[in-house]
Design brief:
alpha+beta, SH3 type barrels, two-stranded antiparallel ribbon, 5 helices, 7 strands, about 35% helix, flat
């Protein structure tokens, strides 16, 4: 309420009389400038808010029925456009005999062979997949019991250096990325095209 403390008691008396709809107190209105100022300001605000309420109601009604208003304006415009069009003289169409054109021969197109799907092979690329967000352990040798040499994150592109070799019932490929390499099982490698340099 810091705003209320800035005005005098007479100012608030004029404000409250106007807000209550009372006529101005003549003894205050003629002799106290603060009272007159507050009373007149409150009355202006009331008139302005009444006008705003009316305009808001009109705006709400227009928003509610805007499709009908839009359709009405469109039909009105279309009707005016039709009325303003000059009349076209009616002319009979003269049909002239024409030669039947020969069909243009279509060139035979040779089918484009489909691009072969990339496969796991030495000197190709793959992406690490199927680890559920965990890093893929790459080992020093093919096999699940070999020492872990490095880890690759899921979604990382790797280069296949050599392979395949079979160990522990899995196919293993030697892969390399960011200066580290190791042997990884084929189920976690998805072949991809060579990435752009």
């Amino acid at each position: 309420m810091p705003q209320q403390q800035r005005h005098s008691e007479i100012w608030w008396r004029g404000h409250n009389d106007a807000m209550a709809g009372d006529p101005p107190n003549e003894s205050y209105y003629h002799y106290y400038y603060d009272y007159k100022l507050a009373y007149d300001k409150a009355r202006r605000d009331q008139r302005r808010s009444r006008r705003q309420r009316v305009l808001n109601n009109i705006g709400r009604q227009l928003l509610r029925y805007w499709p009908a208003v839009l359709l009405f304006v469109g039909l009105l415009g279309y009707g005016g456009w039709i009325i303003l069009q000059p009349e076209q003289p009616v002319t009979e169409a003269v049909v002239l005999p024409t030669r039947t054109p020969r069909p243009t021969p279509r060139p035979t197109l040779t089918p484009i062979p489909p691009t072969p799907e990339p496969v796991l092979q030495a000197d190709s690329f793959a992406v690490i997949t199927g680890t559920d967000g965990a890093p893929l352990r790459a080992r020093a040798e093919p096999g699940t019991s070999a020492a872990i040499q490095t880890r690759f994150r899921e979604g990382q592109n790797v280069r296949i250096l050599e392979g395949p070799q079979t160990a522990d019932g899995l196919e293993w490929w030697k892969i390399e990325a960011e200066g580290t390499n190791g042997w990884a099982a084929a189920p976690f490698l998805k072949p991809i095209e060579a990435p752009a340099p």
